[in-house]
Amino acid sequence: MRIHPAYIPALLADRIRLPLLLLCWTVLPLLPGTAPAGDPVQQEYQVKAAFLYNFARFTSWPDTGSGTFNLCILGNDPFYGAIDALRDKPVHEQPLTVRHIASTGEAAGCQLLYIDRSMSGQLDGIIAELGRYPVLTVSDIDGFIGHGGIIGLLVINSKIRFEINISAASDAGLSISSKLLTLATTVSTGR
Amino acid sequence: MDLRPSHLRTKLVGASRARHPPAVDPAHRTGRTTGFSRFTTGLILGLLGLSVASADSGNAIATDSLMDMSLEALMNIEVTSVARRPQKKSEAAAAIFVITGEDLRRWGVTNIPDALRRVPGIQVARIDANKWAITARGFNSRFANKLLVMIDGRSIYTPLFAGVYWEANEVMLEDVDRIEVIRGPGGTLWGANAVNGVINIITRPAADTQGTLVAAGAGNEERGTASLRYGGTSGKDGHYRVYGKFRSVGTGRAIDTGLFPPVAHDDSNLQQGGFRMDWGRHTADSFTVQGDAYQVNAGQELLIASASPYPLVEDARYTGHNLLYRWSHRNGTDSDYTLQAWYDHVGLDSAVLSEDRDTLDLDFQQHLGATGSHDLVWGLNFRSIHDHTGSTPTFALVPASRTVNLYTGFVQDEIALYDERARLTLGSKFEHNDFTGLEVQPNVRLAWLTRSGATVWGAISRAVRTPARGEQDVALAVIPPAPAPPPMMIYGNDHFRSETLVAYELGYRFAVAEQVSTDIAAFYNDYHRLRTVDVYTATPPYAATFNNNLTGHTSGIEIDSHWQATDRLAVNADFTQLKIDLDLVNGSNDTLSPSAENSSPAHTANLWIEASPGRHVELDAGVRYVSSIRTPGSATDIPAYTAFDVRIGWKPRPGLEFSLTGQNLLDNAHPEFNPDFIYSLPTEVQRSVYGKVTLKF
Prior knowledge:
- The structure holds two protein chains of two kinds.
- Chain A starts with 7 loop residues before the first helix and ends with a strand.
- Chain A is of the alpha/beta class.
- In chain A, the strands form two sheets. An eight-stranded mixed β-sheet of chain A has the order 3-4-2-5-6-7-8-10. Chain A has a two-stranded antiparallel ribbon with strand order 1-9.
- The model of chain A is unreliable at 6-42 (pLDDT under 50).
- Chain A has helices at residues 8-12, 18-27, 40-57, 123-130, 166-171, 178-183, and strands at residues 59-60, 69-74, 90-91, 94-101, 112-115, 136-139, 151-156, 159-165, 175-176, 186-188.
- In chain B, the strands form five sheets. Chain B has a 22-stranded antiparallel β-barrel. Chain B has a five-stranded mixed β-sheet with strand order 1-8-9-4-5.
- The longest helix of chain B is centred in the first third of the chain and has 13 residues, at 35-47.
- In chain B, a hairpin with a 5-residue loop joins strand 2 (122-126) and strand 3.
- At the A-B interface, helix 1, helix 2, helix 3, strand 4 and helix 4 of A face helix 1, helix 2, helix 3, strand 15 and strand 16 of B.
């Protein structure tokens, strides 16, 4: 049986004084938590998460990888739980895993790297460090593809749009399906 | 301004030197709250011993259906972007500096104090190879008592003297997400002792430290370090990590006093291990359990009252363990509450001082979120500290064992004015302690955002430094350093009162171009009832007691600037000026305490670069200047010094890193500080070179 985290302190508390034990039992109950479904900001990133899934499906990687499809998030996680819906979804016949990483050094093994806006100050360094590794970079940082990123997310008239830097994709050895290229707002060929 | 302890809010976006452009802070998005009634219900159910089944997060369910939609359909969904302006570090109404985990790696530091050397307004000096004097905005001492230091929300200052045993409080640097440093009283929301500043060391969530990390290093001063960490998952939504760390540090260079052979005995070694588990990273309820255990042997040579003319040579032994539990509940994205409990044990065994201390801390904070233009936070805290001390001929506490309770409440409202161009923060902390009763610490802060994107801020705050147990209960035999007058006994005073501060602060942050940002903070601190050591016997043997007979003010300016010159080169500079004026009152005959005027450098400056000359090569170099000081009781100055540090890193492939670091390269050795109250022999800081390899897989 898996122990619910709410009870861990009590189980760990055998070395701790009785008051803490009592307090943990009495004031650390588990509460039902349901975030309001209609939160507008979550919705934006819920939709963006769905876009990530589609980007993964409509891109081909040079080798099939390690048995899992690794989607990594660099910087703050803006998805606020929405990305969890992607876990274990099949991508190229591999289950999708989600990893949160803090630096590009941990990006080894990532097929898709989402770069949060919080990293925009270091963007050029990140792109340079990834070099020609077969990593599909996606971000909603302004001007992302102009900095060498592969897919940039935009919000235009309250709808999500995306643009693709096709030469960055081919430098990375990735092949992006014509379906994505057709739907993209812009397909750029330069840095 | 949201200055709650960091674990209770999302991170200060736009890290140090404001080098990142605005990012969205989820805690400040629109939303409404229903949290309190749910909390009450939960509390009642909890009291009844019931538990309520967890519901899956609603947004994850909603997302599931999105995943089945075609790309064309997704492109037709309307989304609403963030309405509320995000909170940025660059807009905060306080003097904030953030050291990121990446900074720690690139600076090549092996401990927290060395990292703090680059923070403007923080004075860092090494006493010997394991002891430090660290403070904010003056009053430096090994027992500096006006700085609050926390690791993941757990306070690490010792209530014995209200300072920090820096030699015993280490973290695994690879796990540090960031270190937030706030100079000044910092706001309503911090715990006791946040008088001149707050340092909050925040480790990364377990989800961000997955996989295996092995790091090992060796050098002439940093004799050997080894770190091992493993992170994995538990169940659907849980992550954990376990780590172990070993560190051995060599001696500094002994200072020849002419009284006995100069042989340094200040080497130290540390073994530490710990874990962290997180659940529900993305759901409404999230849980964290973390703990550490450590043992440190730190050598010292003590001048204590004894028959021998030679110092007593020993290894002080610190042991400790702690356990922290935190439960956070988020309602939507704009309101939340957090319940946290931690327990901490510290043991110290040395020839002067032995103590065992247990601390239990319970904390509840609720962020009610935006209601109109108001953003309200309130909280309650209870802390109970129980100690048991041993007595030696040099040091005793009477009573030897004591329990001290601290009750704190706070409330703060942040009000958006003028179309959110201005933010007014009003708040107060109410703290009840066993020594001085109720202490009220209000503050008012205002931040104004100019149309050009600059921030002007100002604050007026009252803060108190409540008495430490030692100031109430100690009997301490002091031998000042040579030429040694006869020993003096210092006795605690039941009537010792809180030290008070009213701080006036002003700040200005601006960007000259997109690549250059500058942060200027100025302050004027007005202190009353500062501690004095008053001698009340006319002839030897001298006896003294603690009183509140010192008054004074400090003023200073702190500037830091960041220039992203190119993609591959960043230049940082900071400068600190500090002036302290202290005056004895009530006819006090204390000669030591007023000399704190000179124990902190009047000027410090840092200049450092972070360069990436090649795709896999990093070069970091820094030079720092610290002006001369004179520590209390010393006859001579500690001269000004300039130090140069450099690190070269090579990352041949992701997950593998080699580095070579040189520290204090400009001289063979230099002194930085002298101890007070407990006179251990200081040593000089020597040139240091070490190499390190880090492997992640």
